[in-house]
Amino acid sequence: MDNSFSSIIESANSILILLPTRPYFDQVAAGLSLYLALRNKKNVTISCPSQMLVEFNRLVGVNKITTELGNKNLVIKFSDYKATGIERVSYDIENGEFKLSVIPKPGNNPPTKEQVALSFSGVSADTIILIGGINDTHFPSLSSKELVGAKLVHLGIKALIAPAGMEVLSFARPAASVAELVYYLVKESSFEIDPDIATNLLLGIEAGTNNYSSSFVSADTFQMASDLMRLGGKRHSQGVKRQDYPEGAIPGELPPTQEGGETKEPPKDWLAPKIYKGTSVS
Quick one: where's region Disordered (predicted)? Predict the structure, then answer.
């Protein structure tokens, strides 16, 4: 049986990319990059049990991450509304459109628009890809009955300790960042890497390696960063222009002094080398 990453993706009907609880920036960047690479090929969703942090907003597609595990069923809930006030619920099909009617009991008001809460439940995915993490505490949903029968795949820089009796196909291997591993698998599978994917992966590598200062950084890390920049990836610091800095903030640049609308030139000896003489003490 071919257990290559590309064959797993090819055989999947629906894919759920699952981020760990309280994920690192690198893990979110890696998961989103994989989501973007697969969204035009498969029915794919991406979920995280934790809310996204503000710092993740610079990643492309972060708004696609949901806290709901699946989207198999639509759930309609009336918040702060007593169920005893409802007499019955009916539905109709009008002009091909579904219409749900909630009829309150006499003397009761119907739920307001503000009280209607929509959510999803149930996992329809047959393949679950776990990003990062090292044990089941990072993926509490592994104990959910909704995942029974789904193929579990793990991508990370450390092996995942799965619960007893649970089979997980692991692609974990040592690397400086999870983004590196995702880049390797996406490239190996011949999936397209557009500028958005390249940017996410590049930002993930930078964050995961602490701007390439990690002891796990290798020549391959720099080669990946170079390849991603050639593919249109942009570093977070790009796009900041000289005029965006306050006067005097750039080393070696003298702040202009305005007098009468003209720049005042510094004294001629301002940039001349200085000679200092020491005093000997006998």
Answer: 233-282
Number of domains in the chain: 2
Q: Are residues 45 and 152 in the same domain?
A: yes
Q: What does the pLDDT look like over 22-32, one tens digit per residue? A: 999 999 999 99
Is 130's pLDDT higher than 90? yes
Nearest in space to 177 (alpha carbons), one of 196, 199, 204: 204
- Pairwise CA distance, residues 75 & 148, whole Å: 21
Residue 240, domain member (yes or no)? no
Do residues 130 and 154 make contact, with C-beta atoms less than 8 angstroms apart?
Answer: yes
Q: Are residues 57 and 189 located together in one domain of the fold?
A: yes
Cα–Cα dist 28/201, whole Å:
10
Residue 181 CA to chain centroid, in angstroms? 15
If you average pLDDT over residues 117-133, what whole number do you get? 78
Cα–Cα dist 119/121, whole Å = 7
- Residue 202 inside a domain? The answer is yes
CB 72 within 8 A of CB 123: yes
Q: Does pLDDT of 260 surpass 50?
A: no
Contact 185, 179 (CB under 8 A): no
- DSSP-assigned beta bridge partners for residue 151: 127
SS3 229: helix
Which pTM value belongs to this model?
0.70
Positive or negative, the CA dihedral 143, 146, 148, 150 is: negative
Residues 35 and 61 in one domain: yes
